[in-house]
Design brief:
This protein is of the alpha/beta class. The protein has a single domain, classed as Alkaline Phosphatase, subunit A (3-Layer(aba) Sandwich). The protein is built from 11 helices and 17 strands. It has an 8-stranded mixed sheet with strand order 7-6-8-2-9-12-5-13, sandwiched between helices. Strands 1-16-17 form a 3-stranded antiparallel sheet, with no helix packed on it. Strands 3-4 form a two-stranded antiparallel sheet. Helix 1 crosses helix 6 and helix 9 runs parallel beside helix 10. About 40% of the residues are buried.
Length: about 425
């Protein structure tokens, strides 16, 4: 620093310099979870600008009414299949808008994840592996946030949108630590308690923050401990969130954009997800419930598929128009599918033996289908994929090394489950 410049520093400038020094120290700090990967690769990934939007189909959508229809079979139900914009690929007639957008999307029709109860299946499909009593695995959003987030970012790393029926399945960072837990919106689309009180002026608010930074910086020089780093980082994050409240306000979007997404809760949350991704949030989960159609499966899917078809199409269109689709991976996924057999209540029950999901955008070879179920949709006959393989595919699409390992204490833990391999057939 030029000594002649010092007399020009006022009190607030001095405080801000001290705060900046504190923030720089935090940015240089290493996570307590060390990765067995080269620092150059890790830094490259963190600067990639890639993002994920997960459209979570809570309760388990029927593959037979969405991505893998079987019309004409006893298991097929009343709906027909329709030709998509990709020759040879057909999907349910309940998804007419997506049928014209399959060039951006890959369909996986061969998931066999075996677990068909909501709680355990949710854990499996949110972590990519079965639980272990001795270790809390991070959910997908936390892992993506850890890999693609910026240490000094002021926007959230991981946001989960609420639904009235999804309950409190909000995800968790597990051994990655609280830094990567999600911002969970429980009953409204605007985060609670992030606005400055009217009784505190903006100047007072900034001065208080500057004074806290100065005192924390002095204290940290005398007492070094990871807990103090986490405490200071939390304050920085809160200030960043307070400055990011506009990202959750869709009233700032032109009416034409809001109309494009539509008036439903799912549509509005997809619009917020795009706004968050555009601002640099690495992972956003939007849940659409409730697909658990043990009765009246066909009426349920007529309603829910219409919402999914419209909102997913609007999101892909918007991302593409903004030049974001090549760097944003859009996933549609639930905890399992629905049984091919139709029960006495004209419903479909839980089914994890041969079901479907989709990947769109970043790193994906659009207009492709991987895997095949038999003619009645009861078993996988080609390209069977488990949860670990799906996660490895997601990581590979984002440029994340699926062989990477975390060291949790003295134990190496792979980022994707042991023996998992990406599906290269659908990777660009």
């Amino acid at each position: 620093m030029n000594p002649t410049a010092l007399p020009n520093l006022n009190r607030r400038s001095l405080l801000r310099l001290a705060g900046a020094a504190s923030t720089a120290t935090l940015a240089a700090d290493m996570s307590s979870i060390e990765a067995l990967a080269s620092p150059a690769l890790t830094q490259s990934l963190k600067q990639s600008g890639k993002r994920v939007i997960l459209l979570w189909l809570a309760g388990g959508a029927s593959q037979l009414e969405t991505w893998d229809p079987k019309p004409g079979r006893l298991t097929g139900g009343p709906f027909e299949k329709i030709q998509t914009c990709v020759p040879g690929i057909e999907i349910s007639e309940l998804l007419p808008k997506m049928s014209s957008r399959l060039k951006e999307t890959a369909i996986i029709r061969s998931l066999n994840t075996k677990i068909a109860d909501h709680g355990n299946a949710y854990q499996l499909m949110d972590t990519g592996r079965t639980p272990e009593p001795s270790l809390k695995f991070p959910h997908l959003g936390a892992t993506i946030a850890h890999e693609l987030g910026q240490r000094d970012s002021q926007v959230p790393d991981y946001v989960t949108m609420y639904t009235s029926t999804e309950g409190r399945r909000q995800g968790a960072a597990g051994f990655l630590g609280g830094r990567y837990n999600p911002m969970f919106l429980t009953d409204q689309m605007m985060p609670a308690n992030i606005k400055r009180l009217d009784s505190i002026t903006d100047i007072d608010h900034r001065d208080r923050a500057d004074l806290r930074d100065l005192m924390a910086n002095i204290f940290e020089r005398k007492q070094s401990h990871p807990m103090y780093d986490a405490h200071n980082s939390a304050y920085d994050r809160v200030r960043g969130l307070m400055a990011s409240d506009h990202l959750f306000d869709i009233e700032r979007e032109p009416q034409s954009v809001r109309d494009h997404y539509g008036p439903t809760q799912f549509g509005q949350q997809c619009l917020i997800a795009r706004r968050l991704a555009e601002s640099g949030v690495p992972f956003v989960k939007v849940a659409r419930a409730w697909w658990d159609s043990h009765g009246q499966n066909f009426e349920t899917h007529q309603e829910l598929c219409a919402d999914l078809d419209h909102c997913m199409s609007a999101l892909l269109d918007d991302l593409k128009a903004r030049g974001m689709l090549d760097s944003t991976l859009v996933i549609t996924l639930g905890e399992f599918g629905r049984t091919p057999d139709i029960n006495g209540s004209l419903g479909r029950d839980h089914f994890a033996s041969a079901w479907s999901c989709t990947l769109s955008g970043c790193g994906i070879r659009g207009g492709s289908v991987f895997g095949k179920s038999d003619e009645d949709g009861k078993t996988v006959i080609e390209g069977e994929m488990n949860a670990g393989d799906l996660f490895a595919t997601i990581f590979a699409a984002l440029g994340i090394d699926h062989h990477k390992e975390f060291m949790v204490g003295s134990r190496p833990v792979p980022i994707a489950d042991f023996d998992s391999e990406p599906c290269f057939d659908i990777l660009a």
